[in-house]
Design goal:
The chain has one domain (10-332): 3-Layer(aba) Sandwich (Rossmann fold), CATH 3.40.50. 30% of the residues lie in helices and 18% in strands. It has helices at 73-81, 114-127, 141-154, 177-193, 206-211, 235-250, 285-291, 316-333; strands spanning 10-11, 15-16, 23-32, 40-48, 58-63, 84-90, 133-138, 161-167, 258-263, 299-304.
């Protein structure tokens, strides 16, 4: 299923965001739910308000991962300090955009997100005409974005995107290789008849506890929008992800340079260990390294020593290293002396 690369939707007026002063949000109305959960669906575009003294030389569009939403204000301020007008998208049924009757983060096809992505890009262009845009995706967002960019490139619609930054992108299903094939086949079959069926998977709050202030972490975010143990995974959604993985593995051409940031190690322990705060607890970083070459074009991969799954939510030292790697890449691909947008 594809929505068509050029499709956009209606954007409502900007209003104050839940992040407080300096951030605004606009609802993107997407019409009737194509996945049949009833009613309409919408996405939410968030922007950091550009201050009068700030010069804009480009823009950022950030996309979150599964069981997540945008709350990373430090990332927004860091980008703004480089002259990048920061925007983030809560996808349909995710974060700010989920209605009570909707299955969290459910989409039967990752291409459905094209509509809100195109609409967000159009809104950025309206605010900052001619500004080059860097897209940033974390985890599942790091899969959604290159698939979208590949579709845009095939339609000769690369601009205004000039690069992508992928933060621990989800490039393959974790686990033993011998299991991934049978699991994928089973997902394909069950998703036809029970797409909203929840998978019975082990529940752990190790990663959430490491991040949130209620545990050992330093980040205060809304646990209703990002639960410590995450939301249940549905068969239909994971099937959509696996189809996305297959497309990536066949090889994409996103049409722009890519920066891939990841931790240097993985630790899947369901209890707190000495590696909990210094490794990726969610994805296998070896898979990220393996499949990064499938993005097409110039790709720079940086393993960040001691980083968490979200490298920009790591402990202070690896977090600083992640920002330094981002800055080095931006210095090359989006220099600060570009014409003012």
């Amino acid at each position: 299923m594809s929505t068509g690369v050029g499709t956009t939707a209606t954007v409502q007026d900007w209003r104050p965001d839940i992040l407080g002063e300096g951030f605004e949000q606009a609802r993107i109305d997407l019409g009737p739910d194509p996945d049949g959960e009833g009613g309409d669906v919408h996405a939410v575009l968030v922007r950091r308000v550009v201050r009068p003294e700030e010069t804009v030389v480009g823009a950022v569009l950030f996309v979150h991962g599964f069981s997540d939403y945008f709350f990373q204000t430090d990332l927004a301020h860091h980008c703004a300090a480089r002259g990048l007008a920061f925007h983030a998208l809560d996808l349909r049924k995710c974060g700010r955009a989920r209605e009570p009757h909707q299955t969290a983060h459910y989409a039967s096809d990752l291409a459905l997100y094209d509509t809100e992505l195109e609409t967000a890009l159009a809104a950025i262009a309206a605010d900052h005409p001619g500004a080059p845009v860097v897209v940033m995706g974390h985890s599942t967002g790091g899969l959604v974005l290159p698939l979208w960019l590949d579709r845009r490139r095939r339609e000769d619609r690369v601009a205004p995107v000039v690069g992508q930054v992928l933060n621990s992108p989800w490039f393959d299903l974790q686990g033993k290789p011998v299991m991934r094939g049978p699991v994928t086949q089973a997902l394909r079959a069950v998703s036809r008849v029970q797409p909203l069926r929840r998978l019975d998977l082990p529940v752990t709050t190790v990663y959430g506890d490491a991040l949130h202030v209620s545990g050992r972490g330093e980040w205060d975010y809304d646990l209703a929008l990002r639960p410590l143990a995450g939301f249940p995974i549905t068969v239909g959604w994971l099937n959509a992800v696996r189809r996305g993985h297959a497309a990536l593995h066949r090889g994409l051409d996103v049409g722009v340079p890519s920066l891939v940031l990841r931790s240097d190690r993985t630790s899947f322990s369901r209890r707190v260990t000495e590696l909990t705060d210094r490794s990726d607890n969610i994805l296998d970083v070896r898979q990220i390294a393996r499949w990064a070459g499938c993005l097409g074009g110039e790709t720079h991969v940086v393993p960040v020593a001691g980083a968490r799954h979200d490298v920009f939510l790591s402990l202070a030292e690896p977090r600083a290293a992640a920002y330094a790697a981002l800055d080095r890449w931006l210095d090359v691909h989006l220099p600060a002396d570009l014409p003012t947008a």
